[in-house]
Model the fold of this input.
Amino acid sequence: MSRRITSILALVGLLALAVTGTASAANTLTVTPKRPGPGAVVKVTVKNPKVRRAFNAHGKLYAQLTPPPVVQNADGDVDGCAIHHPPQGRYLPAGRHGAKKAVFKMNPGDALAGPGRWCAGLWKVRLYAMTDQPSDTTDSGWVEITLARTTFTAHA
Done:
């Protein structure tokens, strides 16, 4: 009897590992590097069901960057962060069923104003797709599909 219970428990354990392995493979978010220097390009890859939904809706990919809070230096001057273009992403092809991944490359040299480098501190990133369908509930006036949210910490 104990042998049977042991076998059942082992089978349940293997099944649990298989289910969690499948779930983690289906939803991934990678940020490289997680602690970039002032001039490093940050690459974010997203793989989840929302990416396929955005691809099927012909959504254009964007990243909304929120800089760290403004800090006063020793002289009392404010060290502001650059205002960045919303970086566009691209879909990675995945066969006949559409895209499975979205890749965003965020370059600090794409700044609209400011030094063209990452300010030191925690940057918040919202990755989203904007479709061509009108919406009254978004600031842009178009349907937006949030794919993921993440952060990275730039250092000086």
